[in-house]
Each structure stands twice: as structure tokens, then as C-alpha cells.
């Protein structure tokens, strides 16, 4: 049973869903603010989805109307028109099950965080290997037993020499070697 004749000063929030609750306990549905928050979240979801490569989008179960809206996005150049278009896509997404969409975005976000953390860790190793030399090399080989000391030691010497000359080639080669080593093992 919905009540529409109660004024706002007699309503309280239920504290959970943003529904307005009359003093007698009858819910009036979501508040205007809750509806706006939900729609803004859908617009953000639409923007995030449109940043994905087409191949990943195709793995999702989207209806024809949503695909049509996604395809139209490519032609839109004006920022205001694009903002309106995000609202249109958000309306399309509101009719769909959003859990698979959110799960895909969460999975991608997690993969990006792991890749960034690995990249930073490799940069720290590179800096330690260049500055500390053999002491850091021993620790690195302990942590990554698949690493071969001789090629790594040669790369470290070249990187140290190039770092003193402010040349990026040696440190880059060392970083690539470390990255390939960690990715293969």
C-alpha cells in the first residue's frame, strides 16, 4: 500500500534503502535522493563500461537497445551530448541485471591493481639492484630462484654504468629482464 498524501515533514528515512516511511510505518518508496544516487551510480557504470574494449563488452548479456546505444557513442563528440548519452545508456542498464557488469569491472580493477603493484615492486628491485649490487642480487635470487646470476649481474653492471651517465638504456633492459623473469615464473 503506497501513501501519496503524506507531507514530507511527517516522513522519516528508514535508514537502509532511503525509503520515506510515514509515522504509521507505511513505506512511500525510495526518496528522491535515493533515486538520484542510484541513477548517478548507473551513469558511472555506463561510463566505465564504455571504457572497456569491445571484445570484453561482447561477453556480456546486453540487449539490442543497449548495444544500439553503445554503438552510437562512437559518433558523439560533444561533451554535453555525451553526458546525455550516458544517461540514456544508464536507463538501458537499469532494465538489465547489473551484477555481471559490476563483477566484470571489479575483476578488471583487481587485475589492474595487481599489475600496478607488480610493476612498482619490480621498479624497487631494479633500483635496489643498481644501488646495492651483489647484496640485493643475493636477496633477489633467493626470492626468485629461477633467476640466473651471471646474465643478471651483467645487466646490473650495464645499468649501473648507464645510470651514472644518465642514460636510460641499461636500467630499461634490467627492468625488462626482471619483468619477463617474474611473468614467466
TrEMBL record:
<dbReference type="InterPro" id="IPR006839">
    <property type="entry name" value="DarP"/>
</dbReference>
<keyword id="KW-0699">rRNA-binding</keyword>
<comment type="similarity">
    <text>Belongs to the DarP family.</text>
</comment>
<keyword id="KW-0963">Cytoplasm</keyword>
<dbReference type="GO" id="GO:0043022">
    <property type="term" value="F:ribosome binding"/>
</dbReference>
<keyword id="KW-0690">Ribosome biogenesis</keyword>
<dbReference type="Pfam" id="PF04751">
    <property type="entry name" value="DarP"/>
</dbReference>
<dbReference type="GO" id="GO:0005829">
    <property type="term" value="C:cytosol"/>
</dbReference>
<keyword id="KW-0694">RNA-binding</keyword>
<dbReference type="GO" id="GO:0019843">
    <property type="term" value="F:rRNA binding"/>
</dbReference>
<protein>
    <recommendedName>
        <fullName>Dual-action ribosomal maturation protein DarP</fullName>
    </recommendedName>
</protein>
<comment type="function">
    <text>Member of a network of 50S ribosomal subunit biogenesis factors which assembles along the 30S-50S interface, preventing incorrect 23S rRNA structures from forming. Promotes peptidyl transferase center (PTC) maturation.</text>
</comment>
<dbReference type="GO" id="GO:1902626">
    <property type="term" value="P:assembly of large subunit precursor of preribosome"/>
</dbReference>
<dbReference type="InterPro" id="IPR023153">
    <property type="entry name" value="DarP_sf"/>
</dbReference>
<feature type="region of interest" description="Disordered">
    <location>
        <begin position="1"/>
        <end position="32"/>
    </location>
</feature>
Amino acid at each position: 500500500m503506497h501513501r501519496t498524501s503524506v507531507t514530507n515533514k511527517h516522513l522519516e528515512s528508514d535508514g537502509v534503502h532511503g525509503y520515506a516511511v510515514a509515522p504509521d510505518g507505511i513505506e512511500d518508496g525510495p526518496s528522491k535522493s535515493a533515486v538520484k544516487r542510484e541513477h548517478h551510480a548507473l551513469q558511472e557504470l555506463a561510463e566505465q563500461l564504455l571504457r572497456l574494449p569491445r571484445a570484453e563488452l561482447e561477453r556480456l548479456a546486453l540487449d539490442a537497445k543497449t548495444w544500439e546505444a553503445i554503438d552510437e557513442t562512437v559518433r558523439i563528440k560533444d561533451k554535453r551530448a555525451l553526458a546525455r548519452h550516458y544517461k540514456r545508456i544508464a536507463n538501458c542498464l537499469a532494465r538489465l541485471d547489473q551484477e555481471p557488469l559490476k563483477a566484470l569491472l571489479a575483476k578488471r580493477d583487481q587485475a589492474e591493481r595487481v599489475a600496478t603493484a607488480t610493476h612498482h615492486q619490480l621498479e624497487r628491485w631494479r633500483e635496489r639492484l643498481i644501488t646495492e649490487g651483489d647484496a640485493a642480487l643475493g636477496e633477489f635470487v633467493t626470492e626468485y630462484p629461477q633467476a640466473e646470476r651471471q646474465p643478471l649481474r651483467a645487466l646490473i653492471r650495464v645499468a649501473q654504468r648507464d645510470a651514472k651517465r644518465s642514460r636510460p638504456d641499461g636500467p630499461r633492459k634490467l627492468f625488462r629482464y626482471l619483468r619477463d623473469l617474474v611473468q614467466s615464473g
